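Hi C.,

You asked whether I'd gotten around to modeling the 380-residue construct. I have! Everything is below, sequence then structure, no commentary in between.
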Amino acid sequence: MSASLCRAAGLCAIWLALLCAPAWAHKASDSYLTLAVEGRSIEGQWDIALRDLELALGLDADGDGAITWGELRARHPAVAAYALSRLRLSAGQSPCRVRVLEHLVDRHSDGGYAVLRLGGECERNGQDFAVDYRLLFDLDPQHRGLLRLDGGSHTRSAVFSNDAPVQSFALGETARGTQFASFFRDGATHIWLGFDHVLFLLALLLPAVLVRLARDWQPVAGFRPALWTTFTIVTAFTVAHSITLSLAALQVVSLPARLAESLIALSVLLAAADNLLPFLPDRRWQVAFVFGLVHGFGFASVLVGLGLPRGSLLLALAGFNLGVEAGQLAIVGLFLPLAYSLRARGLYSGLVLRGGSALIVLVALGWLVERVFDLKLLPA
């Protein structure tokens, strides 16, 4: 094998590793933390998914796959201790003492949640309020804590992640720029860690540097056709998911989380399968638009549960959506030059396009079965 082919094979191997290595990770979990600060007093509520508490504490005592109220009630002290050990609040650089006042249960669109009613007080009344959030990061690095903070006549929102577990807020200010930046960052992170969204986009873009002739793939003649195909696909996907993201976040329309996630997995499966056995329309931007409408509901999961007032929600929505677009552009910026440079080599149409698409089909099929039947098949 020539040196150039060796380099191409190495690049293909790296590309396939990047494409498929993270794809086995499960969907990130969310918890919803609401805090109201008035003077030294704190009230709040913390909704934590039962499936996450099961992962951390093992609530299912009889192992039948269902967590009953009796099983949860028996572990109330453990749940409270676990949650509070991973949350630190402070005002004016002095600690705040928080306790669980009541245990309830609620149901979100993605399943049952334990609801912890919180109360407490701070040692001093300070305008600088800090939250140190560490829930589940040791078990699920993709977990996010979604915060709504009411204080100083303003409502703020923030997203806590493994990379940003500590955030500070000025209770006397609107801090709109901070809120926008927080959701912009989470939007970009969401597209990078939302492996189903990434694989759907890549499945549509893999043939962008090729043209199908007589049931075979041939390299495009120049960069401009590949760039135009990529532009139409990304634009259609962006417009579509922006529509449903906005409508879902504003609670105009809704889709059950399990159904939305199942349809997203199906979209990945169909887009990749079409690279192996064509059956979808040749104009891939149409496919990107139709399935992009479904992906928007997946993106909206970050914002829907916060219950933000309209002014704060619009700012969060704008920041999150622009972050998603920035993340998409980063993916395309990495993908297109590499794919174009390899398009004329047989390794691309054989190994990258067909091999990569086959791997995506397998991963998407596993996701689909998991989400439709509420199973756990793929390793976390």
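If it helps when you're writing up: The radius of gyration is 23 Å.

Thanks,
B.
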